[in-house]
Amino acid sequence: MPLARCALRFAVEIKTNSPQAQLTSHRALGNHQETDEEEQEMTRDKIPGASANLSALSDLCTPWCIHVVATLRIADHIAAGIADIKTLATKAECDADSLQRVLRHLVGKGVFQEPAPGQFALNEAAQGLLDPSQQLGLDLDGIGGRMAYAWGSLLTAVRTGTPAYHEIFGLPFWEDLEAHPDIAASFDALMGPPGHGTPDPEVLVTGGWESIRTVVDVGGGTGALLAEILRTRPEIHGTLVDLPRTVARADSIFQAAGVGDRVRTVGQSFFDPLPAGADLYLLKSILNDWPDREAKVILSRCAEAARPSGRIVILGGVSPDDRADPQLLMMVLLGSKDRTLTEFRELANEASLKVQAAGRLPSGRFAVECRPM
Ligand SMILES: C[S@@+](CC[C@H](N)C(=O)[O-])C[C@H]1O[C@@H](n2cnc3c(N)ncnc32)[C@H](O)[C@@H]1O
Predict the structure, then answer these.
(1) Is the pLDDT of residue 210 over 50?
(2) Alpha carbon distance 4, 19 (integer Å)
(3) How far is it, in rounded angstroms, from Cα 205 to Cα 211?
(4) Model pTM?
(5) Closest by Cα among 283, 284, 282, 292 to 337
(6) What is the pLDDT of residues 282-313, one digit of tens each?
(7) Which pLDDT score is estimated for 105?
(8) How far is the CA of 205 from the centre of ligand 1 (A)?
(9) How many helices and strands (H and E) does the chain possess?
(10) Position with higher pLDDT, 8 vs 107
């Protein structure tokens, strides 16, 4: 069982049970359904928590120490052959004594080793900090910092029922990203292949790829899913819709997949009318970024564009009725949530969509297929 599951974060799938994979998990805005379920199962196992240790559960020191050493790339410096604390601190441009205290705390928690006084080494857990996806999720100077500091707004979010991200960062989440291109770039990287790896292109619940020639990935990020769909199905053409700054980063992904000649990008808001007439519209890890009012508009835009015969597939953000995820990170960042299938069905109906099928994909992800009414 994972040592330190933060039920928070944007997405990095836990791939193994090894200590480095267990170091921390970064869960996406609804991404990685499998991970959600593991976590829910763990939560159920733990209830009512006779063995819960409040001191350990409320320890903020260790998570912050991990964020700090990740931000300073201490594991990379050690992997490059530096062991001595003074040299490590010089490389990381930080204070040697303070760094040593942080590292010693982590050694006591099983991350890093100190084979001789003032000499630090990687152990299996610390090697997890070499993983670029971990670095993206933990780096306090990038999106990792937004996800970490945002927890300071949890109390207000709970008191008011609305997100208070702007109290910490001055602007709501998406506006904050728009105002800070470096943070937006690290968010796109976390959501894309560096953070999530290669997505599974099997996205249909009911099958029937033979009737699909055109796919629009709505809010498709930097295009990793669309690239995989086009790569595995040469007869299909695709359109990537996302904000202009994000689609501008998609070209290298499409070129690497060899699909550049079958794809176009449209930098626009998904609250505006979408490219019409495609056979399939995808919404992956989108609906759980938005409260009901906005989620309904996005679904309505898909319904309008897909009419009369297109399909809309929702991946992430909808769970089987007995398995809705609390998604607290989404609550603090965006005031949004996971929806049960029953809740989603109602929202979809209001957006003139009918749920046709719902179920698990080969990847284990729960998906819902809709048609325009
Ligand atoms: C959680 S990410 C999901 C990205 C991608 N679908 C995936 O699963 O990796 C949400 C995406 O919504 C995009 N987004 C946010 N607001 C948007 C808007 N108003 N119009 C279009 N895209 C938007 C973001 O840029 C981001 O790529």
Answers:
(1) yes
(2) 10
(3) 14
(4) 0.87
(5) 292
(6) 999 999 999 999 999 999 999 999 999 999 99
(7) 98
(8) 22
(9) 21, 13
(10) 107
Nearest CA, atom 19, ligand 1: 269
- pLDDT band at 324; cut points 50, 70, 90: confident
Tokens of 322: 């007995």
Closest atom of ligand 1 to 315 CA is 8
- Ligand 1 atom at shortest distance from the alpha carbon of 192: 9
Q: Could you tell me which of 146, 192, 183, 186 has the C-alpha nearest to residue 166?
A: 146
Whether ligand 1 lies within 6 angstroms of the CB of 191 is answered as yes
Establish whether residue 26 lines the binding site of ligand 1, counting it when its CB lies within 6 angstroms of any ligand atom.
Answer: no
Looking at ligand 1, which atom is closest to the CA of residue 221?
27
Rounded Cα–Cα distance for residues 281 and 372 (Å): 11
Q: How far is the CA of 207 from the centre of ligand 1 (A)?
A: 25
Bridge-based pairing of strands 11-12 and 263-267 is unpaired
The whole-angstrom separation of Cα 95 and Cα 117 is 17
Mean pLDDT of 244-254: 97
Q: How far is the CA of 8 from the centre of ligand 1 (A)?
A: 18
- Looking at residue 281, its amino acid is Y
Contact (CB, 8 A) for 373 and 353: yes
Please calculate the CA angle 215-221-227 and round it to the nearest 5 degrees.
50
Q: Is 31 in the pocket of ligand 1 (CB under 6 A)?
A: yes
The better pLDDT of the pair 31, 174 is held by 174
Write down the mean pLDDT value for the chain.
89
* Whether the CB of 219 sits within 6 Å of ligand 1: yes
Residue 242 Cα, ligand 1 centroid: separation in angstroms?
6
Position 314 scores a pLDDT of 98
Point out the ligand 1 atom lying closest to the alpha carbon of residue 196: 9
Q: Answer for the pair 125, 111: CB distance below 8 angstroms, yes or no.
A: yes
Summarised one tens digit per residue, pLDDT across range 103-143 is: 999 999 999 999 999 999 999 999 999 999 999 999 999 99
Question: Is 174's C-beta closer than 6 angstroms to any atom of ligand 1?
Answer: yes
CB 351 near ligand 1, within 6 Å: no
Closest residue (by CA) to atom 10 of ligand 1? Answer: 286
Look up residue 9 and give its DSSP letter.
S
How far apart CA 361 and CA 158 sit, in angstroms, is 34
Query: Which of 8-22, 98-112, 351-365 has the least mean pLDDT?
Result: 8-22
